[in-house]
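A reminder from the course coordinator: this example appears on the midterm review sheet, so study it carefully.

Given structure:
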């Protein structure tokens, strides 16, 4: 049980609120997680988004070094439908190459309008722009 609680605390630390030029951004660090831990983190983020009582989230997802599997892709599609009513803009840092095709597919299915960035600061600037 101790290991389970410790692992959950480690995942909770990957969800943070950032402030950039007076805008509140939900930052999620998905970097280098196993398939099971990534899915667990996605579900934790669902809970944060849905239960916060807020709308129009700006969300920054860091997926550098992360791999994608069919199981992860299915979870992301499911989660995007849950989070979509609460998200104003969503940016992904670390999506390059084939991963951009996957993001395009998720955007078509969920209409979240997420955008890929290589640079973390560029993503934050896009999020706060209107």
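Designed residues:
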């Amino acid at each position: 049980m101790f290991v389970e609680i410790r692992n959950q605390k480690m995942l909770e630390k990957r969800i943070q609120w950032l402030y950039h030029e007076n805008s509140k951004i939900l930052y999620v660090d998905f970097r280098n997680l196993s398939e099971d831990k990534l899915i667990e983190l996605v579900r934790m983020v669902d809970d944060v988004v849905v239960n916060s009582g807020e709308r129009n989230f700006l969300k920054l997802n860091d997926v550098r070094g992360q791999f994608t599997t069919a199981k992860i892709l299915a979870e992301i599609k499911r989660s995007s439908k849950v989070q979509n009513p609460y998200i104003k803009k969503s940016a992904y840092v670390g999506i390059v190459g084939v991963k951009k095709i996957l993001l395009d597919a998720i955007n078509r299915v969920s209409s979240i309008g997420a955008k890929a960035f290589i640079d973390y600061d560029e993503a934050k600037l896009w999020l706060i722009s209107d």
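Strands lie at 15-20, 23-29, 57-62, 87-93, 115-117. Helices lie at 2-12, 35-51, 70-83, 98-110, 120-128.
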